[in-house]
Write a structure and sequence with these properties.
The protein is about 70% helix and about 0% strand. The protein is mainly alpha-helical. About 0% of the residues are buried.
């Protein structure tokens, strides 16, 4: 297989691991935290109401996930090792 195929494969595996660790493990906790925040809002406890930390952490996780997707698409389009050599092979 061309060199870019294995690079795409390993990037996809890394993305899968990242997503499984950071997204799947926090879905339930984030949902519960948001529901609790909403209940406080509904009761009129708006003083000191802020976004739960787990939700903020998921936002960071989503930004990193976007970079994984961007990296995958760029490898598919630019085909490193095919159109131009890998940096470590130059």
């Amino acid at each position: 297989a061309p060199p870019h195929v294995s690079a795409i494969f390993w990037t996809l595996i890394a993305f899968l691991v990242w997503w499984a660790v950071t997204d799947l493990t926090t879905q339930g906790t984030a949902l519960q935290a948001v529901n609790e925040m909403y209940e406080k809002f509904e009761k009129g406890e708006e003083e000191g109401l802020e976004t739960p930390k787990v939700v903020v952490d998921r936002h960071v996780s989503n930004v990193v996930s976007c970079f994984f997707v961007l990296t995958l698409y760029s490898m598919m389009v630019l085909k490193p090792g095919t159109l131009f050599p890998f940096p470590w092979n130059a």
